[in-house]
Amino acid sequence: MKLKEIIRTLEEIAPPELADDFDKGRIGLILGLGDDVNKIAVALDANSYVIKRAAEIGADLLITHHTLIFHSINIISKPLADSLKTALENGISLYSMHTNYDRAEGGINDVLATRLGLRNIRAVEAGRIGEIEPCSSAELAAHVSDCLEAPVTYSGEMRRISKVMVVGGSGFRSEFLEIARKNTVDAFISSELKHDILRSYEDLCLIDATHYATENPGMEALCPRLRSLLEIDVEFIDQPSGLKAVDRKSEKSKAETCTEAGKESSRKRENEKDSLESMLEEQSRNQIRSDYRRSLGNEYRRRYIE
User: Fold this and answer.
1) Contact 247, 154 (CB under 8 A)
2) Domain residues of the chain, as ranges?
3) pLDDT value of residue 70
4) In terms of CB atoms within 10 Å, which end of the chain has fewer, N or C?
């Protein structure tokens, strides 16, 4: 299939005009290397791992949410050089769909809201608002963690949450949170929660579900759409962030349990050691007695012969 035909479809899915102003020049076809495309790879990031993997599976086009080069550069780092080298040597064109895909129908935020089971979903600036069965902050945080299979952190203890706003990626920004307040939202789900935001919006339950987990589902969901629309081979490249959360209290309890178990194991080893030493000592004494008896017997036999 011709690359320009694929681009036409991608722009229908995520119109470039939906993008934020800062995305101008950073979305669309970033690197065009060939007119014919037989296989497409889709991923969240255009990093060295993903581009190398795209080369391994024989992709001619890599579509990502985050572009390879976001900020202007004067110095090319080795990882960037390696990524460009891999793309150039393997003829992999690069295409980015960022904030335009966040806002697009069926894009990042729609997929996130659906994945979390929100009902009566409606679009607002950069996000989605929907309803859930009433639950507490802790229950909602656990639900989000289960749905996205990711560690989450949250603030704002609330007993009853029924209206939720979601923004994929780094959405903890005042302008978005003010929209949440205006719409009487109980909880706001996004990523990269900062201290000043946490303090300024203590009236809301704020759930940080990580950048990767809030955006990756949208890119994965793009694959079947492209297969259906383009009738071409499309493969998703997943690269989990590797982030893990530690609960201080539970980990402390585990540590104490491990410490106690370690002490018990140490006591057991000491007891086994003492038992072994006692056994060896007893065996040594018995050997001495046996040798002594033999020597006495030999002496008696000698004297008898004489």
Assistant:
1) no
2) 3-103+215-236, 108-209
3) 86
4) C
**How many other CB atoms sit within 10 Å of the CB of residue 269?**
10
Contact 127, 183 (CB under 8 A): no
Q: Which residue has the higher pLDDT, 220 or 249?
A: 220
For 154-186, write each residue's pLDDT tens digit: 999 999 999 999 999 999 999 999 999 999 999
SS3 breakdown of the chain: % helix, strand, coil, rounded to 5?
50, 20, 30
Q: How far apart are CA 71 and CA 49, in angstroms?
A: 20
pLDDT over 70 (residue 279): no
Residue 306's pLDDT band (cuts 50, 70, 90): very low
Per DSSP (E only), the strands in 9-139 are 28-31, 39-45, 61-66, 93-96, 119-124, 127-135
| Homologous superfamily of the 108-209 domain (CATH) | NIF3 (NGG1p interacting factor 3)-like (3.40.1390.30)
Amino acid at 281: E
SS3 85: helix
The chain-wide mean pLDDT, for the chain, equals 89
